[in-house]
Amino acid sequence: MSATATGVPDLLRRFAPAPYHAQVLIAGVDLEMHTNDVEIVAKMQRQPVTVKEAAPRKPIRATIIRDIEAPVGGNIAIIAATPLTTLLIGTGTVVVLDSELREILGFLAPSISAADFIDNLLPLLLKALSWPNAAQQTAEHR
Amino acid sequence: MHVHVDSRISTGREQPRFRGLRHLVTAIFGEENAFVFDLHRRRIVATVGNEVAADRRFWDHILLPITVGVLGPALGVVPVHAACLTFGNEGMLIAGESGAGKSTLSLALAQNGFGYISDDWSYLSMQDQRIVAHGLSVPVKLLPDAVHHFSALSQYQPALALNGELAYELPAHVLGATVRLSCKPRWFFFLERSGEPGFHVRPISSTEAQSYVERSVERLPPELDDIICARAEVIEELSQLSCWHFCYSGTPEIAVQGLRKFLAEQRPEVSA
Predict the structure, then answer these.
(1) Which of A43, B16, B89, B172 is the most interior residue, by most CB within 10 Å?
(2) What is the pTM of this model?
């Protein structure tokens, strides 16, 4: 059954389109971004150019949906349990890194700017790629 | 399930917010109690505060149904929006849109000798090439006007349910139901309320039944193709049950009497 062959509403927003894309190095990680927020792509394209390593790893594919209905505000928290690292800000922003499948999937509340996401939140999440034991990091980043 | 209990989390279990992409689904209750469901690895990662960690009702009546609903398809279990009851040793599923009266009818049937498994969601799996329907022993949910049909409700107060509706939520056995955990369904009914007096039944084709269920199950992304295929097999098997459309108007007793008579007429075929 295809996603469109049913009248069931997409309550989880699993099928939200992500038509804009860009690929750049962020925090030393090759990131292929797919998003519905053109501001995120524009911000990525303004990142300083970094020379890629000779044998780069498979890029991390990110799908980030700007969730205009999401509640704003809340504390920042990270839940880490290998291979998943989840960054939360209140109930409106949730971004998960799957380090095994090299994917980032998430939703951003309207209050999170593209700059804040690219400059601060994404590097924080990408740090998890180098954590030897992610489960120990949960408390430290709260 | 990997659960991290963090004493610094102070929020309780408020209305959950769900989101999902590819193989991951998140549910966040009250800002900081967060669950990540990983359909690819059949795993849950969560962080909760002390209040939620100690709240048994949350785990039994809220998180368990959510977990089976979200991860079930990855485990060979298909959640179907249908009540489930037994007549003798045989099961029946009663599907219907929200508000069609599944819960009211289920309780009325249960108070009249039918075994009760669920009033709203049933969980299907395959066993020995037959469908088995399971319930989760969660409370029966009745809207405030159900007090007109079940006077016992008058001693309780309706409260806000998980979906924000005002409702009575009570264990079915408290309301006189004999609760069973599972059954092998023979009949699949599609309930509709009708303006036409009385009780009416007509057969429907397996194609119609299959189409209804496919339209009502959650959409899954193409990355979960193996799960989608396994689910489609269960739905196809479900559509091979004896499928009927039925509608009634008036009190639930009219439906109970009509359904009982209909099933009694069907039963000789069972022993044949």
Answers:
(1) B172
(2) 0.86
A79 touches chain B (CB under 8 A): yes
Residues 25 through 84 of chain B touching chain A, CB cutoff 8 Å = 25-26, 28, 30-32, 34, 36, 38, 40, 45-47
pLDDT in tens, chain A (142 residues): 333 445 677 889 999 999 999 998 888 889 999 999 999 999 998 877 655 554 467 899 999 999 998 988 888 999 999 999 999 998 899 999 999 999 999 999 999 999 999 999 999 999 888 776 544 444 444 4
Helices (H) and strands (E) in chain B, counts: 7, 19
A89-94, long-range: CB within 8 Å, 24+ apart, which pairs?
Answer: A89/A121, A90/B31, A91/B17, A91/B28, A91/B30, A91/B31, A92/A67, A92/B17, A93/A67, A94/B19, A94/B26, A94/B28, A94/B34
> Beta-carbon neighbour count of residue A123 at 10 Å?
14
Residue B21 and residue A65: Cβ atoms within 8 Å?
Answer: yes
Q: Which tokens hold the place of A134? A: 């992610």
Contact B41, B180 (CB under 8 A): no
The pair of structure tokens assigned to B39 is 């359909």
Give all strands of the β-sheet with B140-142 in edge-to-edge order: B140-142, B166-170, B159-160
Q: Is A8 close to B31, i.e. CB distance below 8 A?
A: no
Q: Give the max Cα distance, chain B.
A: 64
Q: How far apart are CA B137 and CA B141, in angstroms?
A: 12
Are B240 and B184 in contact by the 8 Å Cβ rule? The answer is no
